[in-house]
Amino acid sequence: MNVRSQISMVFHLDKCIGCHTCSVACKNVWTDRKGAEYMWWNNVETKPGTGYPTLWEDQEEYQGGWEAPGGKLRLKSTSKQKLVFNIFHNPHMPSIDDYYEPWTYNYEHLFDAPAGDDQPVARPISQITGELVQIESGPNWDDDLGGSPVYAANDPNLEGLSEEQRSQLSSVERLVYFYLPRICNHCLNPSCVASCPSGALYKRGQDGIVLVDQNRCRAWRSCIAACPYKKVYYNWFAGKAEKCILCYPRLETGQAPACFHSCVGRIRYLGVLLYDASRIEEMALKKDAELVEAHRSLILDPHDPEVISAARAAGIDEAVLESARRSPVYKFVKEWKMALPPHIEYRTMPMLFYVPPLSPVISTRVNGMVDFDSTGFFHDIDESRVPVRFLANLFGAGEEREMRYALRKQMAVRWWRRAQTTSDVDRETALRMLAEADCTPEQAEAIYQLTALCTFQDRFVIPPMHREEVIEKRHSPRQAQSSAGFGFTTGTGRSI
């Protein structure tokens, strides 16, 4: 057992209001500079929708992540043989048109325009070329239009849905959408790290945050194509790769990342997980339908004496172990099994998890009355406006079992709370719903507390970083590790 610690995150989508405050906070801190104008390390998408960059989930086009032909992990986008031929043109790398051409406005024209009969206007100009530009897209171009046939019809997650299910997402009377905030997942098996020929990308040993060493980066840009979530960017001015750093300078001083701290809906949770690094490759080779549970099995119980002993032997500090025992991420992911990884079929083993959203049911009007025509406690899940299959494609590699489990538990907790506060639901009915959702009253109360009444300290359990120990290890010859790329078995980059 090779125990390591990892900073991990949970986003509760049932609470996201799509205000983009997180995106603006990140933009102001990290990407408000030349060469980074088009970058949004944090962005909020409307689902169903095509996202940013456009159709980033279409791996037939982008070839991101891993594949497992013949029981061996292999990068989709690159290899030692492909690298030389892709130096000047990588067919799987998104272009500026797939993101958007960033623009501002020539406000000076409002003051400097000569006298005339017409009111002067501030016209849009490109932040890259400085020339006048026709605005055709943006980072949230299809925001709040997830139900429209213009964008939603092209969402790759619609695969496998019936025509009736597709139409219900775009008809006006059944229009529905939800928000999907995205940052770098800081994966356990990051394809961006494995793809870098110069070893510039690496995973920090003390907390698992994936970073780019700007001094080693040689602008190969293989990482951009290899990342299936398209969360590595190229700074055209500096000639370097850049990505979300999870605000590690803030974490090292006990502060939450900027996007977490500013979240209006309080949907974000951060904590530390312990995982078994020796089993990553084995779990990544599982069949698609088994990947969610395989991924979850990598996470170790911080209360287990055997795990604690192995963690101490690996040099993990007692304070980190204590933080792991209080981690809200561990509760959502491992204990309650309500949070699921995005597109686990990419096999990067992401460390960002999502609690899927509940949505309104589809009703029909019969003789002037609204009729739901349903039986059973959990009919709303199958009759919701966002089909379970759509959510399963997004968070379960197409496997609906894990998605239904998470949604049933959410719904059962809601009914339990209604039984406590109103007369709409009797206690016996609520108890039976909890039992069918594999949930106890005590667990339901804990879920309710962490979801609705959580404090700042409940949502963000930040372990001490012990920066001084990291510096000592960095300068110790015995701790030096070589950089590697092009595959899991040859290394996953430098760990310092």
Sequence-ordered SSE layout with sheet pairings:
Layout: E1 3-12, H1 21-30, E2 43-47, H2 59-62, E3 66-67, E4 74-75, H3 80-83, H4 96-99, E5 103-105, H5 108-112, E6 124-126, H6 163-170, E7 178-182, H7 191-195, E8 201-203, E9 210-212, H8 222-226, E10 232-235, E11 240-243, H9 248-251, H10 258-261, E12 268-276, H11 280-284, H12 291-297, H13 305-313, H14 318-325, H15 328-335, E13 352-355, E14 364-366, E15 369-371, H16 379-382, H17 388-395, H18 400-421, H19 427-436, H20 441-452, H21 456-459, H22 467-474
Helix pairs in contact: 17-18, 18-19, 18-20
Describe the structure.
The protein is an alpha+beta fold and 496 residues long. The protein has a domain at 265-459: Alpha-Beta Plaits. 32% of the residues lie in helices and 13% in strands. It is built from 22 helices and 15 strands. It has helices spanning 21-30, 59-62, 80-83, 96-99, 108-112, 163-170, 191-195, 222-226, 248-251, 258-261, 280-284, 291-297, 305-313, 318-325, 328-335, 379-382, 388-395, 400-421, 427-436, 441-452, 456-459, 467-474, and strands at 3-12, 43-47, 66-67, 74-75, 103-105, 124-126, 178-182, 201-203, 210-212, 232-235, 240-243, 268-276, 352-355, 364-366, 369-371. It has a three-stranded mixed β-sheet with strand order 12-1-13. The protein has a two-stranded antiparallel ribbon with strand order 2-7. A two-stranded antiparallel sheet has the order 3-4. A hairpin with a 2-residue loop joins strand 14 and strand 15 (369-371). The radius of gyration is 24 Å and the shape is globular. The protein starts with a strand and ends in a 22-residue tail after the last helix. The model is unreliable at 369-374 and 477-496 (pLDDT under 50).
